[in-house]
Amino acid sequence: MISSNDLRQRYLDFFAKRGHAIVPSSSLVPENDPTTLFTGSGMQPMLPYLLGADHPKGTRIADSQKSFRSQDIEEVGDNRHTTFFEMLGNWSLGDYFKKEQLPWIFEFLVDDLGLDPQKLYVTVYGGDQQYDLPQDDEAIELWQQLFASKGVDNKVVSGAREKGLQDGRIFSYEGAANWWSRAGDPSNMPVGEPGGPDSEMFYDYGEERGLHESSEWKDQPCHVNCDCGRFGEVGNSVFMQYLKTEKGFEPLPQQNIDFGGGLERIASALADDPDMFKIDLFTPIIEYVEKVSGKQYEGEHLISFRVIADHMRAAVMLMADGVLPDNKDQGYFVRRLLRRSVRYGKQLGINKPFLAPLAEIVGEIYAEPYPAVKQQVESITQAIQAEEDKFLRTLERGLQEFARQTADESQLTAQLAFTLYETYGFPLELSIEEAEQQGLKIEENIDQAFATIKDQHAAQSREGAAGKFKGGLADHSETAVQYHTATHLLHAALRKILGDHVEQKGSNITGERLRFDFAHPQALTDEEKKQVEQQINDWIAADLPVTNQTMEKEAAFAAGALAFFGEKYPDQVSVYTIGSDPANDWISKELCGGPHVEHTGEIGAVEIFKEKSASAGVRRVYLRLK
Ligand code: SER
To answer: Which atom of ligand 1 is nearest to the CA of 182?
Structure first.
Protein backbone atom coordinates (compact mmCIF):
# COMPACT_ATOMS: atom_id res chain seq x y z
CA MET A 1 0.00 0.00 0.00
CA ILE A 2 1.39 3.41 -0.83
CA SER A 3 1.25 6.09 1.85
CA SER A 4 -0.85 9.23 1.41
CA ASN A 5 2.34 11.27 1.24
CA ASP A 6 3.55 9.09 -1.64
CA LEU A 7 0.19 9.34 -3.31
CA ARG A 8 0.30 13.14 -3.23
CA GLN A 9 3.83 13.10 -4.65
CA ARG A 10 2.95 10.59 -7.35
CA TYR A 11 0.11 12.78 -8.49
CA LEU A 12 2.32 15.86 -8.66
CA ASP A 13 5.06 13.94 -10.51
CA PHE A 14 2.53 12.62 -13.02
CA PHE A 15 1.44 16.12 -13.94
CA ALA A 16 4.94 17.58 -13.74
CA LYS A 17 5.86 15.08 -16.47
CA ARG A 18 3.05 16.53 -18.56
CA GLY A 19 4.39 20.05 -18.43
CA HIS A 20 2.77 21.31 -15.21
CA ALA A 21 4.48 23.67 -12.80
CA ILE A 22 4.00 22.41 -9.24
CA VAL A 23 2.91 25.15 -6.85
CA PRO A 24 2.65 24.93 -3.04
CA SER A 25 -0.70 24.94 -1.25
CA SER A 26 -2.05 28.37 -0.37
CA SER A 27 -3.04 29.14 3.21
CA LEU A 28 -6.37 27.95 4.62
CA VAL A 29 -7.08 31.63 5.25
CA PRO A 30 -7.51 33.34 1.87
CA GLU A 31 -5.00 36.10 1.45
CA ASN A 32 -6.65 38.62 -0.80
CA ASP A 33 -10.23 37.53 -0.71
CA PRO A 34 -12.39 39.26 1.89
CA THR A 35 -15.52 37.51 0.61
CA THR A 36 -14.83 34.22 2.32
CA LEU A 37 -13.32 33.05 5.60
CA PHE A 38 -11.59 29.89 4.43
CA THR A 39 -10.07 28.31 1.36
CA GLY A 40 -12.71 25.69 0.67
CA SER A 41 -11.58 24.32 -2.69
CA GLY A 42 -8.51 24.10 -4.84
CA MET A 43 -10.09 26.55 -7.20
CA GLN A 44 -10.35 29.48 -4.82
CA PRO A 45 -6.74 30.69 -4.93
CA MET A 46 -6.74 30.19 -8.71
CA LEU A 47 -9.71 32.45 -9.36
CA PRO A 48 -7.87 35.45 -10.87
CA TYR A 49 -6.07 33.17 -13.32
CA LEU A 50 -9.22 31.38 -14.39
CA LEU A 51 -10.65 34.79 -15.18
CA GLY A 52 -7.68 35.57 -17.42
CA ALA A 53 -4.84 37.03 -15.31
CA ASP A 54 -1.38 35.67 -16.19
CA HIS A 55 -0.11 33.06 -13.74
CA PRO A 56 3.61 33.59 -13.05
CA LYS A 57 4.23 29.85 -13.50
CA GLY A 58 2.55 29.53 -16.86
CA THR A 59 -0.62 27.90 -18.16
CA ARG A 60 -0.27 24.39 -16.68
CA ILE A 61 -0.31 24.18 -12.91
CA ALA A 62 -0.69 21.28 -10.46
CA ASP A 63 -0.96 21.41 -6.68
CA SER A 64 -2.38 19.87 -3.55
CA GLN A 65 -4.48 22.53 -1.86
CA LYS A 66 -5.38 22.43 1.84
CA SER A 67 -9.09 23.11 2.17
CA PHE A 68 -11.55 23.64 5.01
CA ARG A 69 -15.34 23.55 4.71
CA SER A 70 -16.90 24.90 7.88
CA GLN A 71 -20.40 24.09 6.63
CA ASP A 72 -19.56 20.39 7.00
CA ILE A 73 -18.86 20.50 10.76
CA GLU A 74 -22.15 18.87 11.67
CA GLU A 75 -21.86 16.30 8.85
CA VAL A 76 -18.78 14.66 10.28
CA GLY A 77 -19.37 11.21 11.69
CA ASP A 78 -20.12 9.09 8.62
CA ASN A 79 -17.40 7.19 6.80
CA ARG A 80 -16.24 10.02 4.55
CA HIS A 81 -17.19 13.57 5.53
CA THR A 82 -14.43 15.78 6.86
CA THR A 83 -14.04 19.52 7.36
CA PHE A 84 -10.37 19.60 6.37
CA PHE A 85 -9.10 17.84 3.26
CA GLU A 86 -6.55 18.19 0.53
CA MET A 87 -7.61 18.76 -3.03
CA LEU A 88 -5.25 17.47 -5.70
CA GLY A 89 -5.57 19.92 -8.57
CA ASN A 90 -4.51 20.30 -12.14
CA TRP A 91 -5.15 23.50 -13.98
CA SER A 92 -5.18 24.47 -17.57
CA LEU A 93 -5.33 28.22 -17.90
CA GLY A 94 -6.47 28.50 -21.49
CA ASP A 95 -4.08 25.67 -22.43
CA TYR A 96 -5.27 22.04 -22.87
CA PHE A 97 -8.91 21.03 -22.53
CA LYS A 98 -11.14 17.93 -22.23
CA LYS A 99 -9.54 15.68 -24.78
CA GLU A 100 -6.20 15.89 -22.97
CA GLN A 101 -7.39 16.08 -19.38
CA LEU A 102 -9.87 13.19 -19.22
CA PRO A 103 -7.42 10.67 -20.73
CA TRP A 104 -4.69 11.88 -18.35
CA ILE A 105 -6.73 11.57 -15.22
CA PHE A 106 -7.99 8.15 -16.32
CA GLU A 107 -4.40 7.10 -16.97
CA PHE A 108 -3.36 8.37 -13.54
CA LEU A 109 -6.14 6.57 -11.69
CA VAL A 110 -6.01 3.32 -13.64
CA ASP A 111 -2.48 2.84 -15.00
CA ASP A 112 -0.43 4.78 -12.51
CA LEU A 113 -2.32 4.05 -9.28
CA GLY A 114 -3.81 0.77 -10.39
CA LEU A 115 -7.49 1.35 -9.60
CA ASP A 116 -9.67 -1.27 -11.26
CA PRO A 117 -11.45 0.45 -14.20
CA GLN A 118 -14.42 -1.89 -13.66
CA LYS A 119 -15.00 -0.06 -10.40
CA LEU A 120 -14.95 3.43 -11.90
CA TYR A 121 -18.11 5.28 -12.93
CA VAL A 122 -18.47 8.80 -14.27
CA THR A 123 -21.09 11.51 -14.62
CA VAL A 124 -21.23 14.25 -17.25
CA TYR A 125 -23.21 17.41 -17.85
CA GLY A 126 -26.60 16.84 -19.45
CA GLY A 127 -27.26 20.46 -20.37
CA ASP A 128 -29.65 23.10 -19.04
CA GLN A 129 -32.59 24.32 -21.08
CA GLN A 130 -33.12 27.33 -18.88
CA TYR A 131 -29.72 28.73 -19.87
CA ASP A 132 -29.59 27.19 -23.30
CA LEU A 133 -26.50 25.14 -22.41
CA PRO A 134 -25.92 21.87 -24.30
CA GLN A 135 -25.17 18.34 -23.09
CA ASP A 136 -21.45 17.59 -22.94
CA ASP A 137 -21.28 15.11 -25.84
CA GLU A 138 -17.53 15.45 -26.16
CA ALA A 139 -16.97 14.23 -22.60
CA ILE A 140 -19.37 11.34 -23.17
CA GLU A 141 -17.44 10.24 -26.26
CA LEU A 142 -14.08 10.54 -24.54
CA TRP A 143 -15.23 8.44 -21.60
CA GLN A 144 -16.70 5.84 -23.94
CA GLN A 145 -13.36 5.46 -25.68
CA LEU A 146 -11.42 5.33 -22.41
CA PHE A 147 -13.55 2.60 -20.88
CA ALA A 148 -13.57 0.66 -24.17
CA SER A 149 -9.77 0.82 -24.27
CA LYS A 150 -9.74 -1.23 -21.05
CA GLY A 151 -12.39 -3.62 -22.25
CA VAL A 152 -14.92 -2.18 -19.80
CA ASP A 153 -18.60 -1.85 -20.77
CA ASN A 154 -19.45 1.80 -21.41
CA LYS A 155 -23.20 2.28 -21.52
CA VAL A 156 -24.46 5.87 -21.38
CA VAL A 157 -27.54 6.55 -19.25
CA SER A 158 -29.38 9.86 -19.31
CA GLY A 159 -30.71 11.33 -16.09
CA ALA A 160 -33.34 9.64 -13.94
CA ARG A 161 -31.47 8.74 -10.78
CA GLU A 162 -34.69 7.33 -9.42
CA LYS A 163 -34.28 4.51 -11.93
CA GLY A 164 -30.97 3.50 -10.40
CA LEU A 165 -27.83 2.31 -12.16
CA GLN A 166 -29.49 0.64 -15.16
CA ASP A 167 -26.19 -1.04 -16.05
CA GLY A 168 -24.78 2.35 -16.94
CA ARG A 169 -21.15 3.45 -16.76
CA ILE A 170 -21.46 7.06 -17.93
CA PHE A 171 -24.36 9.06 -16.48
CA SER A 172 -25.53 12.31 -17.98
CA TYR A 173 -27.47 14.58 -15.62
CA GLU A 174 -29.38 17.67 -16.67
CA GLY A 175 -29.40 20.88 -14.69
CA ALA A 176 -27.27 21.62 -11.66
CA ALA A 177 -25.86 18.19 -10.76
CA ASN A 178 -22.87 18.43 -13.08
CA TRP A 179 -22.24 22.11 -12.97
CA TRP A 180 -19.53 23.58 -10.77
CA SER A 181 -19.02 27.09 -9.46
CA ARG A 182 -18.12 28.39 -6.02
CA ALA A 183 -21.72 29.48 -5.63
CA GLY A 184 -23.20 26.17 -6.79
CA ASP A 185 -26.10 26.13 -9.26
CA PRO A 186 -26.11 28.47 -12.27
CA SER A 187 -29.04 30.36 -10.73
CA ASN A 188 -27.14 30.97 -7.48
CA MET A 189 -24.12 32.44 -9.19
CA PRO A 190 -23.59 36.18 -8.83
CA VAL A 191 -22.78 38.17 -11.95
CA GLY A 192 -19.03 37.96 -12.65
CA GLU A 193 -18.62 34.45 -11.22
CA PRO A 194 -17.01 31.79 -13.45
CA GLY A 195 -18.30 28.23 -13.70
CA GLY A 196 -18.85 25.40 -16.07
CA PRO A 197 -19.96 21.85 -16.72
CA ASP A 198 -18.05 19.15 -14.92
CA SER A 199 -17.47 15.44 -15.04
CA GLU A 200 -17.22 13.50 -11.80
CA MET A 201 -15.48 10.18 -11.21
CA PHE A 202 -16.64 7.64 -8.64
CA TYR A 203 -15.15 4.50 -7.16
CA ASP A 204 -17.54 1.63 -6.45
CA TYR A 205 -16.91 -0.02 -3.09
CA GLY A 206 -19.17 -2.81 -4.21
CA GLU A 207 -22.80 -3.76 -3.80
CA GLU A 208 -21.86 -6.82 -1.77
CA ARG A 209 -20.82 -4.72 1.24
CA GLY A 210 -24.46 -3.85 1.79
CA LEU A 211 -23.82 -0.15 2.38
CA HIS A 212 -26.97 0.79 0.52
CA GLU A 213 -29.20 -1.82 2.16
CA SER A 214 -28.18 -0.66 5.60
CA SER A 215 -28.63 3.05 4.79
CA GLU A 216 -31.64 5.31 5.10
CA TRP A 217 -31.90 5.31 1.28
CA LYS A 218 -32.52 1.56 1.11
CA ASP A 219 -36.04 1.99 -0.25
CA GLN A 220 -34.79 3.83 -3.34
CA PRO A 221 -32.49 2.41 -6.01
CA CYS A 222 -28.80 3.19 -5.53
CA HIS A 223 -26.98 5.40 -8.07
CA VAL A 224 -23.53 6.94 -8.29
CA ASN A 225 -24.57 10.13 -6.50
CA CYS A 226 -26.41 8.25 -3.75
CA ASP A 227 -25.45 9.27 -0.21
CA CYS A 228 -25.27 5.70 1.09
CA GLY A 229 -21.49 5.64 0.65
CA ARG A 230 -21.26 2.75 -1.82
CA PHE A 231 -19.81 5.13 -4.43
CA GLY A 232 -17.01 7.46 -3.38
CA GLU A 233 -16.22 10.51 -5.48
CA VAL A 234 -12.53 10.46 -6.39
CA GLY A 235 -12.31 13.39 -8.76
CA ASN A 236 -14.07 16.17 -10.60
CA SER A 237 -12.93 17.77 -13.84
CA VAL A 238 -14.53 21.17 -14.24
CA PHE A 239 -14.55 22.67 -17.71
CA MET A 240 -14.40 26.22 -16.51
CA GLN A 241 -15.50 28.11 -19.58
CA TYR A 242 -18.44 30.39 -18.73
CA LEU A 243 -18.97 33.67 -16.96
CA LYS A 244 -22.28 34.61 -15.36
CA THR A 245 -23.64 37.87 -16.77
CA GLU A 246 -26.80 39.92 -16.26
CA LYS A 247 -28.42 38.04 -19.14
CA GLY A 248 -27.19 34.49 -18.58
CA PHE A 249 -23.83 33.10 -19.54
CA GLU A 250 -21.08 34.14 -21.89
CA PRO A 251 -17.86 32.26 -22.73
CA LEU A 252 -14.81 33.20 -20.69
CA PRO A 253 -11.90 34.64 -22.70
CA GLN A 254 -10.18 31.27 -22.31
CA GLN A 255 -11.21 27.64 -21.77
CA ASN A 256 -9.86 26.37 -18.46
CA ILE A 257 -9.61 23.06 -16.67
CA ASP A 258 -10.08 22.85 -12.93
CA PHE A 259 -9.58 19.28 -11.80
CA GLY A 260 -9.97 18.51 -8.11
CA GLY A 261 -9.54 15.12 -6.49
CA GLY A 262 -9.80 14.56 -2.74
CA LEU A 263 -6.47 13.12 -1.62
CA GLU A 264 -8.13 11.29 1.26
CA ARG A 265 -10.88 9.90 -0.94
CA ILE A 266 -8.44 8.59 -3.52
CA ALA A 267 -6.36 7.02 -0.74
CA SER A 268 -9.51 5.35 0.55
CA ALA A 269 -10.35 3.97 -2.90
CA LEU A 270 -6.81 2.65 -3.26
CA ALA A 271 -7.26 0.81 0.02
CA ASP A 272 -10.63 -0.43 -1.27
CA ASP A 273 -12.05 0.53 2.12
CA PRO A 274 -15.02 2.92 2.26
CA ASP A 275 -14.01 4.09 5.74
CA MET A 276 -11.82 7.09 5.00
CA PHE A 277 -10.80 7.36 8.64
CA LYS A 278 -8.70 4.22 8.23
CA ILE A 279 -6.11 5.90 6.02
CA ASP A 280 -2.72 6.86 7.40
CA LEU A 281 -3.61 10.56 7.69
CA PHE A 282 -5.97 9.63 10.54
CA THR A 283 -4.67 6.44 12.12
CA PRO A 284 -2.10 8.08 14.44
CA ILE A 285 -4.85 10.36 15.82
CA ILE A 286 -7.27 7.49 16.28
CA GLU A 287 -4.65 5.28 17.91
CA TYR A 288 -3.85 8.04 20.37
CA VAL A 289 -7.53 8.51 21.24
CA GLU A 290 -7.90 4.75 21.65
CA LYS A 291 -5.04 4.86 24.11
CA VAL A 292 -6.34 7.71 26.28
CA SER A 293 -9.92 6.46 26.23
CA GLY A 294 -9.27 2.75 26.52
CA LYS A 295 -11.99 2.30 23.88
CA GLN A 296 -11.75 0.75 20.40
CA TYR A 297 -12.41 2.65 17.19
CA GLU A 298 -14.41 -0.18 15.61
CA GLY A 299 -17.73 -0.59 17.32
CA GLU A 300 -20.19 1.60 19.10
CA HIS A 301 -17.95 4.68 19.35
CA LEU A 302 -17.20 5.24 15.66
CA ILE A 303 -18.80 8.67 15.54
CA SER A 304 -16.94 10.10 18.52
CA PHE A 305 -13.62 8.86 17.17
CA ARG A 306 -14.31 10.29 13.72
CA VAL A 307 -15.42 13.67 15.04
CA ILE A 308 -12.31 14.01 17.20
CA ALA A 309 -10.01 12.81 14.39
CA ASP A 310 -11.49 15.21 11.88
CA HIS A 311 -11.86 18.19 14.19
CA MET A 312 -8.41 17.98 15.73
CA ARG A 313 -6.67 17.55 12.41
CA ALA A 314 -8.58 20.56 11.05
CA ALA A 315 -7.99 22.66 14.19
CA VAL A 316 -4.23 22.01 14.15
CA MET A 317 -3.95 22.75 10.42
CA LEU A 318 -5.91 25.99 10.86
CA MET A 319 -3.78 27.02 13.82
CA ALA A 320 -0.67 26.33 11.77
CA ASP A 321 -2.05 28.84 9.27
CA GLY A 322 -2.37 31.42 12.02
CA VAL A 323 -5.94 31.03 13.30
CA LEU A 324 -6.34 31.02 17.08
CA PRO A 325 -9.48 30.05 19.02
CA ASP A 326 -11.68 33.12 19.32
CA ASN A 327 -15.33 34.07 19.41
CA LYS A 328 -15.40 35.61 15.97
CA ASP A 329 -14.34 35.10 12.37
CA GLN A 330 -12.09 32.13 11.60
CA GLY A 331 -11.21 31.70 15.27
CA TYR A 332 -14.82 30.95 16.09
CA PHE A 333 -14.58 27.75 14.06
CA VAL A 334 -11.33 26.65 15.67
CA ARG A 335 -12.97 27.16 19.07
CA ARG A 336 -15.95 25.11 17.94
CA LEU A 337 -13.75 22.30 16.64
CA LEU A 338 -11.87 22.13 19.93
CA ARG A 339 -14.95 22.32 22.14
CA ARG A 340 -16.75 19.69 20.13
CA SER A 341 -13.67 17.47 20.47
CA VAL A 342 -13.78 17.88 24.26
CA ARG A 343 -17.45 16.93 24.29
CA TYR A 344 -16.99 13.88 22.09
CA GLY A 345 -14.03 12.94 24.28
CA LYS A 346 -16.41 12.94 27.24
CA GLN A 347 -18.63 10.51 25.36
CA LEU A 348 -15.63 8.21 25.17
CA GLY A 349 -15.28 8.55 28.92
CA ILE A 350 -12.25 10.84 28.80
CA ASN A 351 -12.49 13.14 31.79
CA LYS A 352 -9.17 14.93 31.70
CA PRO A 353 -7.48 17.26 29.22
CA PHE A 354 -6.30 15.16 26.29
CA LEU A 355 -6.25 17.30 23.17
CA ALA A 356 -2.90 19.12 23.41
CA PRO A 357 -0.64 16.15 22.45
CA LEU A 358 -2.52 15.95 19.17
CA ALA A 359 -0.65 19.05 17.95
CA GLU A 360 2.50 16.99 17.81
CA ILE A 361 0.78 13.95 16.32
CA VAL A 362 -0.76 15.98 13.50
CA GLY A 363 2.55 17.84 13.02
CA GLU A 364 4.23 14.47 12.56
CA ILE A 365 1.66 13.23 10.04
CA TYR A 366 2.35 16.28 7.88
CA ALA A 367 6.08 16.64 8.60
CA GLU A 368 6.96 16.00 4.98
CA PRO A 369 4.46 18.03 2.94
CA TYR A 370 3.75 20.77 5.52
CA PRO A 371 6.79 21.16 7.81
CA ALA A 372 5.39 24.48 9.10
CA VAL A 373 2.95 22.54 11.30
CA LYS A 374 5.71 20.76 13.18
CA GLN A 375 7.72 23.94 13.47
CA GLN A 376 4.89 25.61 15.38
CA VAL A 377 4.02 22.64 17.50
CA GLU A 378 4.82 24.36 20.77
CA SER A 379 2.59 27.36 20.27
CA ILE A 380 -0.22 25.22 18.88
CA THR A 381 0.01 22.86 21.85
CA GLN A 382 -0.24 25.81 24.22
CA ALA A 383 -3.20 27.32 22.44
CA ILE A 384 -5.07 24.00 22.54
CA GLN A 385 -4.24 23.52 26.18
CA ALA A 386 -5.46 26.99 27.14
CA GLU A 387 -8.72 26.55 25.25
CA GLU A 388 -9.35 23.09 26.61
CA ASP A 389 -8.68 24.19 30.19
CA LYS A 390 -10.99 27.12 29.81
CA PHE A 391 -13.77 25.00 28.41
CA LEU A 392 -13.29 22.32 31.05
CA ARG A 393 -13.59 24.99 33.77
CA THR A 394 -16.82 26.14 32.20
CA LEU A 395 -18.05 22.60 32.21
CA GLU A 396 -16.96 22.03 35.78
CA ARG A 397 -18.73 25.13 37.08
CA GLY A 398 -21.77 24.01 35.16
CA LEU A 399 -21.60 20.56 36.70
CA GLN A 400 -21.35 21.92 40.24
CA GLU A 401 -24.26 24.18 39.61
CA PHE A 402 -26.12 21.28 38.06
CA ALA A 403 -25.60 19.22 41.22
CA ARG A 404 -26.70 22.14 43.44
CA GLN A 405 -29.79 22.94 41.44
CA THR A 406 -30.95 19.37 41.03
CA ALA A 407 -30.26 18.29 44.62
CA ASP A 408 -33.95 18.40 45.52
CA GLU A 409 -35.34 17.66 42.09
CA SER A 410 -36.38 14.45 40.42
CA GLN A 411 -36.53 15.93 36.92
CA LEU A 412 -34.36 17.97 34.58
CA THR A 413 -36.58 20.68 33.13
CA ALA A 414 -35.88 22.76 30.06
CA GLN A 415 -35.99 25.83 32.28
CA LEU A 416 -33.22 24.52 34.52
CA ALA A 417 -31.14 23.43 31.52
CA PHE A 418 -31.59 26.92 30.11
CA THR A 419 -30.48 28.61 33.33
CA LEU A 420 -27.32 26.49 33.31
CA TYR A 421 -26.71 27.33 29.69
CA GLU A 422 -27.39 31.02 30.09
CA THR A 423 -25.36 31.54 33.26
CA TYR A 424 -22.53 29.03 32.86
CA GLY A 425 -22.39 28.30 29.14
CA PHE A 426 -23.22 24.69 30.01
CA PRO A 427 -24.53 22.99 26.84
CA LEU A 428 -27.96 21.31 26.86
CA GLU A 429 -26.48 17.99 25.70
CA LEU A 430 -24.32 17.85 28.81
CA SER A 431 -27.25 18.62 31.10
CA ILE A 432 -29.08 15.72 29.52
CA GLU A 433 -26.12 13.37 29.85
CA GLU A 434 -25.61 14.39 33.45
CA ALA A 435 -29.28 13.90 34.24
CA GLU A 436 -29.16 10.44 32.69
CA GLN A 437 -26.16 9.52 34.77
CA GLN A 438 -27.86 10.67 37.96
CA GLY A 439 -31.04 8.87 37.11
CA LEU A 440 -33.11 12.05 36.88
CA LYS A 441 -36.20 12.13 34.71
CA ILE A 442 -35.91 14.37 31.67
CA GLU A 443 -38.71 16.68 30.61
CA GLU A 444 -40.43 15.35 27.51
CA ASN A 445 -39.29 17.04 24.27
CA ILE A 446 -36.67 18.94 26.19
CA ASP A 447 -34.85 19.99 22.99
CA GLN A 448 -37.87 21.80 21.69
CA ALA A 449 -38.81 23.32 25.00
CA PHE A 450 -35.24 24.52 25.48
CA ALA A 451 -35.22 26.11 22.03
CA THR A 452 -38.51 27.80 22.80
CA ILE A 453 -37.24 29.32 26.03
CA LYS A 454 -34.05 30.40 24.32
CA ASP A 455 -35.94 32.18 21.57
CA GLN A 456 -38.31 33.84 24.00
CA HIS A 457 -35.37 35.00 26.01
CA ALA A 458 -33.61 36.38 22.95
CA ALA A 459 -36.75 38.17 21.84
CA GLN A 460 -37.36 39.66 25.25
CA SER A 461 -33.84 40.82 25.88
CA ARG A 462 -33.61 42.51 22.53
CA GLU A 463 -36.92 44.10 22.10
CA GLY A 464 -38.24 45.00 25.48
CA ALA A 465 -41.94 44.94 25.99
CA ALA A 466 -42.90 48.31 24.59
CA GLY A 467 -45.07 48.62 21.54
CA LYS A 468 -44.71 45.01 20.62
CA PHE A 469 -47.36 42.49 19.77
CA LYS A 470 -47.95 39.53 17.49
CA GLY A 471 -45.33 39.23 14.79
CA GLY A 472 -43.17 42.01 16.18
CA LEU A 473 -45.21 44.69 14.42
CA ALA A 474 -45.63 48.07 16.00
CA ASP A 475 -48.76 48.94 14.08
CA HIS A 476 -50.73 47.84 11.08
CA SER A 477 -49.99 50.84 8.92
CA GLU A 478 -49.31 50.14 5.30
CA THR A 479 -45.57 50.67 5.67
CA ALA A 480 -45.40 48.28 8.60
CA VAL A 481 -47.10 45.62 6.51
CA GLN A 482 -44.61 46.17 3.69
CA TYR A 483 -41.78 45.83 6.18
CA HIS A 484 -43.32 42.72 7.64
CA THR A 485 -43.27 40.90 4.29
CA ALA A 486 -39.77 42.30 3.68
CA THR A 487 -38.76 40.58 6.94
CA HIS A 488 -39.69 37.22 5.48
CA LEU A 489 -37.84 38.02 2.24
CA LEU A 490 -34.77 39.13 4.18
CA HIS A 491 -34.82 35.97 6.26
CA ALA A 492 -35.12 33.78 3.14
CA ALA A 493 -32.38 35.71 1.31
CA LEU A 494 -29.98 35.44 4.26
CA ARG A 495 -30.53 31.70 4.45
CA LYS A 496 -30.04 31.33 0.73
CA ILE A 497 -26.85 33.38 0.55
CA LEU A 498 -25.25 32.59 3.92
CA GLY A 499 -26.63 29.14 4.69
CA ASP A 500 -29.30 27.38 6.70
CA HIS A 501 -27.61 28.11 10.01
CA VAL A 502 -29.18 31.57 9.76
CA GLU A 503 -32.04 31.70 12.24
CA GLN A 504 -34.16 34.65 13.11
CA LYS A 505 -33.44 35.84 16.62
CA GLY A 506 -35.61 38.90 16.68
CA SER A 507 -37.09 41.69 14.59
CA ASN A 508 -38.45 45.15 15.08
CA ILE A 509 -40.26 47.43 12.71
CA THR A 510 -40.75 51.20 12.82
CA GLY A 511 -42.19 53.47 10.13
CA GLU A 512 -38.64 54.13 8.90
CA ARG A 513 -36.92 50.79 8.88
CA LEU A 514 -36.80 47.11 9.71
CA ARG A 515 -34.28 45.69 12.13
CA PHE A 516 -33.53 41.97 11.98
CA ASP A 517 -31.34 39.83 14.24
CA PHE A 518 -30.12 36.42 13.22
CA ALA A 519 -27.61 33.74 14.13
CA HIS A 520 -24.42 34.02 12.09
CA PRO A 521 -20.86 33.82 13.33
CA GLN A 522 -19.27 36.74 11.54
CA ALA A 523 -19.84 40.11 9.92
CA LEU A 524 -21.35 40.09 6.45
CA THR A 525 -18.95 41.11 3.73
CA ASP A 526 -19.90 43.94 1.37
CA GLU A 527 -20.37 41.34 -1.32
CA GLU A 528 -22.74 39.30 0.85
CA LYS A 529 -24.75 42.40 1.75
CA LYS A 530 -25.01 43.24 -1.92
CA GLN A 531 -26.10 39.71 -2.82
CA VAL A 532 -28.75 39.64 -0.09
CA GLU A 533 -30.11 43.03 -1.11
CA GLN A 534 -30.12 42.05 -4.78
CA GLN A 535 -31.91 38.79 -4.02
CA ILE A 536 -34.67 40.56 -2.09
CA ASN A 537 -35.10 43.13 -4.84
CA ASP A 538 -35.24 40.36 -7.45
CA TRP A 539 -38.03 38.67 -5.51
CA ILE A 540 -39.85 41.99 -5.16
CA ALA A 541 -39.45 42.64 -8.89
CA ALA A 542 -40.84 39.15 -9.62
CA ASP A 543 -44.05 40.28 -7.83
CA LEU A 544 -44.50 36.91 -6.14
CA PRO A 545 -47.87 36.14 -4.54
CA VAL A 546 -48.04 35.93 -0.73
CA THR A 547 -50.52 33.33 0.44
CA ASN A 548 -51.87 32.28 3.80
CA GLN A 549 -52.95 28.80 4.85
CA THR A 550 -54.11 27.31 8.11
CA MET A 551 -52.50 23.93 8.59
CA GLU A 552 -51.79 21.22 11.11
CA LYS A 553 -48.60 22.17 12.92
CA GLU A 554 -46.84 18.95 11.95
CA ALA A 555 -47.81 19.33 8.31
CA ALA A 556 -46.46 22.88 8.32
CA PHE A 557 -43.10 21.76 9.65
CA ALA A 558 -43.04 18.84 7.24
CA ALA A 559 -43.61 21.28 4.39
CA GLY A 560 -40.52 23.19 5.46
CA ALA A 561 -42.11 26.11 7.31
CA LEU A 562 -39.79 28.04 9.62
CA ALA A 563 -40.75 29.05 13.12
CA PHE A 564 -38.50 30.87 15.50
CA PHE A 565 -40.51 32.84 17.96
CA GLY A 566 -40.91 30.74 20.91
CA GLU A 567 -44.61 30.41 21.52
CA LYS A 568 -45.76 26.89 22.05
CA TYR A 569 -47.58 26.64 18.76
CA PRO A 570 -51.18 25.44 18.72
CA ASP A 571 -52.08 22.35 16.67
CA GLN A 572 -53.48 24.51 13.88
CA VAL A 573 -51.09 27.18 12.69
CA SER A 574 -51.14 30.03 10.23
CA VAL A 575 -48.50 29.74 7.52
CA TYR A 576 -47.46 32.48 5.11
CA THR A 577 -45.85 31.36 1.87
CA ILE A 578 -44.17 33.56 -0.71
CA GLY A 579 -43.89 32.09 -4.20
CA SER A 580 -45.89 31.18 -7.26
CA ASP A 581 -47.04 27.82 -5.88
CA PRO A 582 -47.30 27.35 -2.08
CA ALA A 583 -46.78 23.59 -2.41
CA ASN A 584 -43.99 23.29 -4.95
CA ASP A 585 -42.42 26.57 -5.89
CA TRP A 586 -41.81 28.94 -3.04
CA ILE A 587 -38.98 30.94 -1.58
CA SER A 588 -40.28 31.52 1.93
CA LYS A 589 -42.63 29.68 4.27
CA GLU A 590 -43.04 30.74 7.88
CA LEU A 591 -45.39 30.23 10.76
CA CYS A 592 -46.73 33.71 11.23
CA GLY A 593 -49.85 35.59 12.20
CA GLY A 594 -49.51 38.25 9.49
CA PRO A 595 -50.55 40.65 8.15
CA HIS A 596 -48.70 40.75 4.86
CA VAL A 597 -48.92 42.37 1.43
CA GLU A 598 -50.60 40.26 -1.24
CA HIS A 599 -47.82 40.52 -3.80
CA THR A 600 -44.15 41.26 -3.15
CA GLY A 601 -44.23 43.99 -5.82
CA GLU A 602 -46.24 46.13 -3.37
CA ILE A 603 -43.12 46.57 -1.27
CA GLY A 604 -40.98 48.45 -3.83
CA ALA A 605 -37.18 48.46 -3.85
CA VAL A 606 -35.34 48.11 -0.53
CA GLU A 607 -31.80 48.66 0.68
CA ILE A 608 -29.67 47.33 3.51
CA PHE A 609 -28.14 50.36 5.17
CA LYS A 610 -26.43 48.95 8.21
CA GLU A 611 -25.08 45.71 9.58
CA LYS A 612 -23.48 45.09 12.95
CA SER A 613 -23.08 42.65 15.78
CA ALA A 614 -26.06 42.23 18.13
CA SER A 615 -24.42 39.83 20.57
CA ALA A 616 -22.06 36.86 20.38
CA GLY A 617 -22.94 34.86 17.27
CA VAL A 618 -25.84 37.16 16.39
CA ARG A 619 -25.77 39.80 13.62
CA ARG A 620 -28.16 42.70 13.16
CA VAL A 621 -29.21 44.04 9.77
CA TYR A 622 -31.16 47.23 9.08
CA LEU A 623 -33.20 47.55 5.93
CA ARG A 624 -35.38 50.37 4.58
CA LEU A 625 -37.65 51.12 1.64
CA LYS A 626 -35.84 53.13 -1.00
N1 SER B 1 -13.44 23.00 -8.10
C2 SER B 1 -13.86 21.64 -8.21
C3 SER B 1 -14.29 21.04 -6.90
O4 SER B 1 -14.03 21.58 -5.85
C5 SER B 1 -12.74 20.81 -8.80
O6 SER B 1 -11.52 21.19 -8.26
O7 SER B 1 -14.90 19.99 -6.91
So the answer is: 1
